[in-house]
């Protein structure tokens, strides 16, 4: 399923600049590109501002954002229902050195 979904989404250029989970698009590369953009703007004496957000609550929004994005991406019918049903009643967790941390965020 992953291969088919990836080909479908990649063919529509939906995954452009989706750093962090794509091959060769690490979060380090995203940081480097952002830094380069800032330095370049400063070199041209542009005013540079930043807006930084705490994304701790980002996962709370997935259930609201995911369904319309799937529809817009052409993912419908059985595959759509399968993805949505998979996400129901899931909880994220983090494991560090064999110790689990529940995030108390309901998917």
Provide key terms for this protein:
single chain; 107 residues; mainly alpha; two-stranded antiparallel ribbon; 4 helices
Structure description:
With 107 residues, the chain is mostly helical. Helices cover 46% and strands 7% of the residues. It folds into 2 domains: 13-52, no CATH class; 57-107, no CATH class. It has 4 helices and 2 strands, in the order ααααββ. Strands 1-2 form a two-stranded antiparallel ribbon. It is extended. The model has no long low-confidence stretch (mean pLDDT 82).
Chain-wise SSE layout:
Blueprint: H1 2-11, H2 27-43, H3 62-72, H4 77-87, E1 93-96, E2 99-102
Antiparallel strand pairs: 1-2
In brief, what are we looking at here?
This protein has 107 residues and is mainly α. It is 46% helix and 7% strand. It is extended.
* Overall pLDDT level: 82
* Unreliable residue stretches: none
Sheet with the most strands: spatial strand order: 1-2
In terms of DSSP E residues, the strand content is 5-15%
Give the beta-strand count: 2
Count of helical stretches: 4
Radius of gyration: 18 Å
Helicity range of the residues?
40-55%
Report the span from N to C terminus: 21 Å
* Quaternary structure: single chain
Q: In sequence order, what are the helices and strands, one letter per element? A: HHHHEE
**What number of structural domains do the residues give?**
2
Largest sheet, in brief, is: 2 strands, antiparallel
Q: Helix/strand/pairing class, anyone?
A: mainly alpha
**Shape by Cα distribution:** extended
């Amino acid at each position: 399923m992953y291969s088919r979904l990836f080909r479908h989404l990649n063919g529509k250029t939906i995954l452009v600049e989706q750093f962090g989970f794509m091959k060769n698009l690490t979060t380090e590369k995203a940081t480097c590109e952002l830094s380069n953009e800032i330095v370049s703007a400063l070199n041209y004496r542009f005013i540079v501002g930043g807006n930084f957000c705490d994304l701790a609550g980002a996962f709370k929004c997935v259930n609201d954002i995911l369904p319309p994005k799937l529809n817009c991406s052409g993912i419908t019918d059985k595959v759509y229902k399968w993805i949505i049903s998979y996400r129901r009643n899931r909880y994220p967790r983090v494991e560090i050195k064999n110790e689990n941390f529940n995030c108390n965020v309901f998917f």
